[in-house]
């Protein structure tokens, strides 16, 4: 009985977390000559070549951003992609996967800091195409020395 209650409690916490995180995604209608189509807001933004990096950089978020970038490249190799960033940073390997993909694909990437771009997110902001890296007036960008097992100042290793 005790283990069953622990499992139920765990499932309830996951369900509550999921609802808090994903229940407020608006649905928008797009009218065409063939009628109306409903999109979640992120899918509609993707149609306009807008990708959002919002929240901590995690493996899951990285996977979604990679898929969106690769999809947009397959749609049009020349049209710019707009990457909006509001992130405190996160997992280095996940961020580097996004960074590498940004460098690999052909379309120019315009990066926009809205809110904050800290740590790994600041690296993603700087990975935008030259001349197309932007920060809105009240945005905050935080860059810090790399941390790891090595000692000394980060610039000493570059």
From TrEMBL:
GO terms for biological process: protein quality control for misfolded or incompletely synthesized proteins. Its EC number is 3.4.21.92. GO terms for molecular function: ATP-dependent peptidase activity; ATPase binding; serine-type endopeptidase activity. Coiled coil: none annotated. It comes from the Eukaryota. The active site is at 119, 144. The keyword Ligase does not apply. Belongs to the peptidase S14 family. This is ATP-dependent Clp protease proteolytic subunit. It comes from Mesocestoides corti.
